[in-house]
Amino acid sequence: MPETETVLSAVADGVLRLTLNRPDKLNAFNDEMHVAMRTGLERAHQDPAVRAVLLTGAGRGFCAGQDLGDRDPRQGGELPDLGRTLELFYNPLIQLIRSLDKPVVCAVNGVAAGAGANIALACDIILAARSARFIQSFAKIGLVPDSGGTWSLPHLIGEARAKALALTAEPIDAETAANWGLIWKAVDDAALLDEAAALAGRLAAGPTKGLGLTKRAIQSAASNSLEQQLELERDLQREAGHSMDYAEGVAAFLEKRKPDFTGQ
Length: 264
Hints:
Elements: E1 7-12, E2 15-20, H1 31-46, E3 52-57, H2 82-99, E4 104-108, E5 111-113, H3 115-121, E6 125-129, E7 133-135, H4 149-157, H5 159-168, E8 172-173, H6 174-180, E9 185-187, H7 192-204, H8 208-220, H9 226-241, H10 244-254
Parallel strand pairs: 2-3, 3-4, 4-6, 5-7, 6-9
Antiparallel strand pairs: 1-2, 7-8
C-alpha cells in the first residue's frame, strides 16, 4: 500500500485491521482520514468475511484528535463550523462503530487525545499500552468533548470523574484508565499489538451472530428499564437460537469437541 494512505486496511483470518496512518501528525484526523475510516467501517458492516475489527495507530501515538491546522480561525474568512465537522464526520464514525454487529477491538498505543480518546472509548474492547495516555484535551482550546465523549465518560466512570477529566484536561495513564473501568486493561507496550491481534482473531473465530447481538443488548441497557431489557433479551435470544452458530455450539459441546463457528 502507498505510504500516503491515511488509514491502512487489511483483512486476515476474519479480522479487518484499520491502522490510522498519519504518524507525523500523531494520527490526527483530516478529511481524507475520515473518508478512509468510513470506507473501512462500511466494509466491516457489509462484508461477511469480516467478523471482527482491530483499530490501532501507526507510530508513537494512537490519535491526537482533530488536526487543528485544518480548523484554524487565523486563516481568515468565516469561523470554522465545528458542528458541521461533527455532523459530517465524527458523529457518523461513532455510529458506525457502535452499530456494527461485530466486535471492535482497539489497541491504544501512546497518546489518545480529544476525539482520538473518544473514538477509542466507542470501541467494544479497549487495550492500552502501559505508556498510553488518555486526554480530554478539549478544555485546553475552549471546546466541548465530542465524538460521544460527554456520553461515554459518565456512563463508564461516573459524573464526578467525567467532569474532572473534561474540565481539567488532565491526562490519565493506562493503568488508571483500567482501574476506573474506562478501558478493559493495560498491557506491556511490546505485547500490545500481539495481544490485541490475538483477541481480535479469537473473536473473529467465534459465534459472530451471538457476539453482535450481545453487543447490541449491552449498549441498549444504558437507556432501557429492566422490563425493556428483559424483553430485548427475549427477542435477541430467540434470534440467536435460530442461528447456525448456536446449533454448532451445542453440537460441539455435546460431542466434546472445539466448535467451528461460521458467523451465521
